[in-house]
Specification:
Layout: H1 18-44, H2 58-72, E1 73-77, E2 80-83, E3 104-106, E4 112-114, E5 123-125, E6 127-134, E7 137-144, E8 147-153, E9 161-163, E10 169-171
Antiparallel strand pairs: 1-2, 3-10, 4-9, 5-9, 6-7, 7-8
């Protein structure tokens, strides 16, 4: 019992009972199985990510992306272009015919509110879901399409659009080999 001190001063010299020893051995063996299974699954599992990477500049990638969008544009949804991949390309990820969806990641610290008169690249219309003030900082949660953006700003103006700088965007589709 843990409330009272051990009856024998040298408690670590008392023999371990058989059922407890069996559970210790089973747990140790299961830990070894899981350890070696991680190594096996990394080498032979089919879930591994592509390891191909390419070096490019943000401007070169942006120009190539814009050319692809202009060439394969199907329609616009919520102000964002929807493109269809060329024949033999990747099929749409869902049952409906929506064209090719591109997964992107943003550097959240680089997202900034855009004013009403601002123009330029990567302006996205947003709907504010949460607006909290913490002293001089304002924390916003904005919905853009089906995604959410968390923004921290010192601006007190109403936010209807945000700007995402080119170098804050990372495209997660690793299927193309040219950059």
């Amino acid at each position: 019992m843990a409330i009272s001190p051990p009856t024998e001063r040298l408690w670590w010299k008392t023999p371990i009972h058989r059922p407890e020893l069996i559970w210790i051995i089973v747990a140790f063996l299961w830990g070894l199985v899981m350890f070696f299974m991680m190594i096996y699954w990394h080498a032979f599992g089919q879930q591994n990510l592509a390891t191909e990477t390419y070096r490019t500049t943000p401007n070169a990638f942006y120009a190539k992306t814009e050319a692809m969008v202009q060439q394969y544009r199907v329609r616009d949804v919520n102000g964002l272009p929807v493109v269809r991949p060329p024949a033999g390309g990747e099929p749409p990820p869902i049952e409906q015919d929506l064209g090719h969806l591109q997964r992107v990641a943003f550097a959240p610290e680089r997202i900034e509110p855009a004013g009403e008169g601002d123009a330029g690249d990567n302006l996205i219309e947003v709907a504010i879901e949460q607006d909290k003030f913490f002293g001089a900082t304002r924390a916003l949660v904005a919905r853009a399409g089906t995604g959410r953006l968390a923004i921290e700003t010192a601006s007190r103006e109403a936010v209807r659009r945000v700007r995402i700088p080119r170098d804050a965007i990372q495209f997660l589709d690793g299927n193309s080999k040219e950059a």
